[in-house]
Structure formats: C-alpha cells, structure tokens
C-alpha cells in the first residue's frame, strides 16, 4: 500500500517541500505536484472534486474538497472518506477488508 498526496496549489507548493514532508511521514508516502493550476483543477474534477482559487493575486487561498480515496492499481476507487473527522479504527478495518479481496 502507498499513500499519495496531491497538491492543488503547485504555484505555492514546491516539489522539494512536498518531498521533505512525505519523507518525514515514511517511505510509503509520496507527493504529486501537477505542472500547473489548470492541470491540478482538472485532476480534481476527474475525481468529482473541486478546487477554486479565491482572493487576490498576492493574498490567495484555495477552496477545495478534502477527500481521501482508496484506489487500486487499476485506478478503481474503492473507498471514499469525505469527513475531516475520521474514525481511524474504521479506516484501518476498511483497508484491511479491501486488501483481503484485492
């Protein structure tokens, strides 16, 4: 199993910083930085998520969904967590059940 974080703000998030963060989390973590904002937005849309830049050019933020997906190597989505309040015991049990059938 691998964990992948995708930034929706490639203009502000450097690959070096993302890689440092993922290294601190462990060898199974990886960060993906789309080449630009449009690619990031299209990636989010591909998962039926959204990402929209808000504010001014100097002081902006991103309004975006924050979901966690379990995706198999064939790119099928099996699990979706949409709440920021995760029940980690439930997530672990769900992943163990998923791994048993894949």
Strand and helix layout:
Layout: E1 3-6, H1 15-25, E2 29-32, H2 37-46, E3 51-55, E4 60-64, E5 68-71, E6 77-81, H3 88-101
What does this 3D model show about the protein?
This protein is globular. It has helices spanning 15-25, 37-46, 88-101; strands at 3-6, 29-32, 51-55, 60-64, 68-71, 77-81. The strands form three sheets. The chain has a two-stranded parallel ribbon with strand order 1-2. The protein is of the alpha+beta class and 102 residues long. 34% of the residues lie in helices and 26% in strands.
Report the mean per-residue pLDDT as an integer: 91
Structure annotation, total helices: 3
What class would the helix/strand composition place it in? alpha+beta
If strands are numbered along the chain, what order do they take across the biggest sheet?
1-2
Q: Report strand %.
A: 25-35%
Percent helix, as a range, is 25-40%
Q: How much is the radius of gyration in Å?
A: 15 Å
Terminal residue distance: 11 Å
Give the strand tally: 6
Would you summarize the structure shown here?
By secondary structure, this protein is of the alpha+beta class.
Keywords for this structure?
two-stranded antiparallel sheet; 26% strand; 6 strands; alpha+beta; 102 residues; 3 helices; 34% helix; single chain
